[in-house]
TrEMBL record:
Keyword Disulfide bond tagged: yes
Cited Pfam families: Lectin_C
UniProt xrefs under SMART domains: CLECT
Residue ranges of domain C-type lectin in the record: 1-60, 84-186
PANTHER family: MANNOSE, PHOSPHOLIPASE, LECTIN RECEPTOR RELATED
Source lineage: Eukaryota, Metazoa, Chordata, Craniata, Vertebrata
Species annotation: Goodea atripinnis
InterPro entries per record: C-type_lectin-like, C-type_lectin-like/link_sf, C-type_lectin/snaclec_domain, C-type_lectin_CS, CTDL_fold
Entry keywords, A to Z: Disulfide bond
Protein name: C-type lectin domain-containing protein
Length: 200
């Protein structure tokens, strides 16, 4: 079902996964429902289609409840940052990768931090911001609390797999902190009437 230009599942789950076929969704007027291709070339991929077309169908029953989606915050984000719930996010997905320490240093240089992730919905939101998919993304999870930006001068201290990256599919992996990756920063939304430096 299509509502205000975005797709949603009829059981109210967020859209975590898509498998659109080439050129889909075409967004032609009145094509607000989704079917799966059965052709040899596009088998299993999705197509937006008219809801009144007769097609085979599949039903599902599950007792699993959809994950909660946070209410929108009422604050402001830094320029070019994207709001989600009460926080704002920036994903670096350029061609050049950065070590975990350099990524954290960048986030801290604008008074933010590498993102911590607290729900599947938040994870999928962050995945959606990794547009180029050049790299996995460093997140704020680490095994070594001494892994500060200045430890980059002591490679032996961070050569073990103490830092956590997020794969393109959302799974996590501990890896060598010196590996070059993209990264995601997060900051809490600021009240519009507050001076910037008071927001953190």
């Amino acid at each position: 079902m299509q509502e205000e230009g975005s797709y949603m599942w009829t059981d109210n789950w967020p859209v975590f996964f898509t498998a659109w076929g080439p050129g889909e969704p075409s967004n032609i007027k009145d094509e607000g429902c989704v079917s799966m291709h059965a052709s040899i070339w596009f088998h299993g991929t999705w197509n937006d289609t008219k809801c009144d077309q007769a097609k085979p169908y599949i039903c599902k029953i599950s007792s699993v409840k959809p994950p909660p989606t946070p209410s929108p915050g009422d604050g402001k984000c830094l320029s070019f940052w994207v709001p989600y719930g009460r926080y704002c996010y920036l994903v670096y997905d350029g061609k050049e990768g950065f070590s975990w320490n350099d990524a954290r240093h960048y986030c801290q240089s604008v008074r933010t931090e590498l993102a911590s992730i607290h729900s599947r919905a938040e994870l999928e939101f962050i995945r959606s911001l990794n547009n180029t998919k050049n790299h996995n993304l460093w997140i704020g999870l680490t095994r070594d609390r001494n892994c500060e930006p200045n430890s980059a001068f002591h490679p032996g201290d961070i050569a073990e797999e103490n830092c956590v990256e997020m794969y393109l599919d959302g799974r996590w992996n501990d890896n060598n902190c010196l590996q070059k990756r993209g990264f995601v920063c997060r900051h809490r939304q600021c009240k519009a009437f507050l001076v910037w430096f008071l927001c953190f």
